[in-house]
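Q: Is it fine to ask for two folds in a single conversation?
A: Yes, each is treated on its own. Send the first.
Q: Here.
A: Result:
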Amino acid sequence: MARFRTIKPKFWDDAKLALVTRDARLTYIAMWNFADDLGVIISKSVWLKSKIYPHDQINLVKFESWLRELEKFGFIKMISTSGKGSGGELFYYLPNLTKHQVINRPNYEDLFIDKKLLEEILEISLIDHGLFTDQSSQGGERRVKESKGKEWSGGEGKDKKHFFSDSEIFDKTIFQQKLNGSQYESANIDWYHEQIKNWADSKDEKKINWLAAAKNWMANDMKDGKFITKNFTPTQNGKGAKPATGADVSTKSVFDAIDRMPE
């Protein structure tokens, strides 16, 4: 059942939260309402989306990309009732829920996972994944922190395929910085970033190096005379002013180009 939660003013100043999109932040707040008093919530994305956005027509792939953002930065963690990565029922755990919520009378009768079982799961995660926990004086309250450089929630390494939302260039500022000084410096960052993001969400795509893939896409656009520069402004019907080369840009050409992106 849904529960009353509070939002502290410093939530809006949190620099780490600023790294995720506004939709991911809103989703995170909503998850507080549907998590139990230990910070556990059902991980099924269909169920979560129906609870959080019952009146919005939101693509499930898009919704799941917000969850991946929250996982990437440690706001939510996937846990299994087996204590391992598979073999049990999966839930999300919100490590900071009990830290920031004042729960005077925690309801231990209405839990997704028994309190003792959750403690065992977190202890296994501590041993197997290099986490450490701080046990507070209040019963059952734990703060789960990541060890240096390792995510136990299934985070991708640099040599593994990962979602665009997990890549460093998901941040448009970093995307622009990576292109500075290159032949792609004049690219329309908003245009390319949005098209890559939409394509990745629509296909649930993973790649090893999203920056290399984006550069390859831009190189193909340059070769085909369709490179989108900063002075190009798309209109509502999906087309806009002529790029610097004078070539037309269509939605089909965008997806044809990105389908040629390397792994």
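Q: Second one now.
A: Result:
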Amino acid sequence: MVRYIRTGKTVDFTPPEFIAAGTVMMLGELMCIAKLDIPANTLGTLAIEGVFEFPKESGAGTQLGAGTKVYWNLAEGIATGNEVVGVYIGKAVATAGIDDTVVHVKLDQ
């Protein structure tokens, strides 16, 4: 039998060390974002749904159109359209042009 737990927009997490608000984390293959600071060894929540503003590179070839798949480059800490260097995080909800340094992404697990 299946039992309802909650809406599923967040997951509980107790980090072994301090996690700053805005930190992108992977729990296995689950992309999570800390909405608030979480002190070490303290129960907090990580968002797994919502629209978030991610940093992105600017310059030629960096435009992300609305509805484009977006990936998180773990090594560089930026959003990209290049699936080879990143983990899928969702889709852009508005176009981010070549001069933009951020992109708004709807998380999509």
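Q: Anything structural to flag on that second result?
A: Two points. The chain has no helices and nine strands. The radius of gyration is 15 Å.
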